[in-house]
Amino acid sequence: MLARGDSQAIQSLPAAAPPPFPAWARAVTAAETEAEAAFFAGAALSRLDAIVRENPPWSGVWRRRLALSVAAANVRRAGRTEGEAALRDALHLSRPGGDPGPAGKFLLASRELGQRPTRQWRSSLAAAAEVLGVPHDGALEEALEAAEACAASARPAPFAAARAFALARRALTSSAGRPSAGRGGEGELLAAWLADAVLAQRLNWPFALPLLAAPLFAGGGRRLGGDVADGAETAHVVFAYAKSAAGAVDLAGDLARRAEKLETVAPKLRAKGAGAALRALLDEDCLAASSEIGGQLSERGARRLFDRLVALGAIRELTGRATFRLYGL
Questions:
Q1: N or C: lower Cβ tally within 10 Å for the chain?
Q2: 156: helix, strand or coil
Q3: For 198-218, what is the mean pLDDT?
Q4: Does the pLDDT value for residue 10 go beyond 50?
């Protein structure tokens, strides 16, 4: 939250959009070899790396939006029908501390990846596993140790992450070791989660981004067979990073432009607590009028402020409903 509760608090925030993702580096068709996958992944991760290291003021909503996309992919992978809108409702329209339901738990677990600095990835993973109801047993510890080994290896970052995904998936979904480990998709979610944590460590990012699951499990995806770290399956995972990194760069550009618009309209706002609300909009995927916003805005005041920002074209109402509305960049 901002130290000051007025619109002056965000006027100096830099909001320049990153350069558009270059067409030559955007993967269109699936890579046929590891070398081709590595080329596209390297190009995409290089562009993404520059944005992550800048740590722009809208990086909070950026990580939340990526987590939403990852959670939706995992929900589909688990055979459920909830999309991004339903996941938002599950999280934001449930009581504080209440049960958001099975799909909502996938979103909470995905958001844990970017909640803490990269160096605290073990604590974040423990929180994600707890949300999903995955016990901290021998299988989870095996997955954690595999991730640590991959992060410390000399493999290029996307290949280290692919290896971590393979080993963690094997540990967390093995029917021999844990009969229910893969039921509902929790094991694969955590495996992709650990791969993203390894990628962030290998690239020395200040925070991790939820990346792998969205392209890897898109539309339910195909079940990966055998050892993902070998041959074509390695290329499949590395290529998924190429696609997700390019998508994350595209999303960053869109959010930067929206944040710039928010900065532009800030001087027009006179409501007490407007600055805290604007900061929260840069931190969160979306807000309800009932959200806790610095303790300075009543629910009625927040609703009026959000509706004014919608009218000014600075934010969007994301549900299309007349009631229980959600607002965001």
A1: N
A2: coil
A3: 95
A4: no
C-alpha to C-alpha distance for 318 and 307, rounded to whole angstroms: 12
Q: Which two tokens stand for residue 230?
A: 């070998």
How far, in Å, CA of 242 to CA of 238, rounded? 7
Supply φ then ψ for residue 120, to 5 degrees: -100, 30
Give 9's pLDDT tier (boundaries 50, 70, 90): very low
Report the SS3 class of residue 141: helix
Distance from the Cα of residue 151 to its chain's centroid? 20
What tokens does 150 get? Answer: 């991959």
**pTM of the model as a whole:** 0.89
Range 298-318 burial, b when 16+ CB lie within 10 A, else e? eeebbbebbebbeeeebbeeb
Instruction: Identify the pLDDT of residue 17.
Output: 78
Beta strand 327-328 with 316-317 is: antiparallel
pLDDT tens across 70-82, in order? 999 999 988 889 9
In a 3-state reduction of DSSP, which class is residue 68? helix
Are 69 and 248 in contact by the 8 Å Cβ rule? The answer is no
Phi and psi, residue 288, nearest 5°? -100, 160
Give 230's DSSP letter: S
Cα 276 from chain centroid?
A: 23
Measured in degrees and rounded to the nearest 5, phi and psi for residue 160 equal -65, -40
